[in-house]
Specification:
- The protein is of the alpha+beta class.
- It is built from one helix and two strands, in the order H-E-E.
- It has one domain.
- A two-stranded antiparallel sheet has the order 1-2.
- Strand 1 and strand 2 form a beta hairpin.
- The structure holds iron/sulfur cluster (SF4).
- The site of iron/sulfur cluster (SF4) has 13 residues, from loops.
- The site of iron/sulfur cluster has 13 residues, from loops.
């Protein structure tokens, strides 16, 4: 069974906007939080081997980017 993190909220995206680059506005973003850290996870990586599960930030170009909403 694949890991499914909790839904990414607007607050998650606001906090990421300054350093995550494209991921902050992407429909495939998944945000994972621990007590001290926030991780940017790419949801496309679950099914598509060409994508890194935890991409180096900021992401400036990405062929998988899809604007959310
Ligand atoms: S598809 Fe690209 S822009 Fe979207 S979350 Fe994954 S790495 Fe970031």
């Amino acid at each position: 069974m694949a890991f499914r993190p909790p839904p990414t909220t607007d607050e998650d995206r606001r906090r990421l906007a300054t350093y995550a680059g494209l991921c902050a506005g992407c429909a495939h973003l998944q945000v994972l939080r621990s007590r001290r850290s926030t991780f940017v996870r790419c949801g496309r990586a679950d099914d598509e081997p060409g994508f890194e599960r935890y991409p180096p930030l900021p992401v400036r170009e990405c062929p998988g980017f899809e604007r959310r909403g």
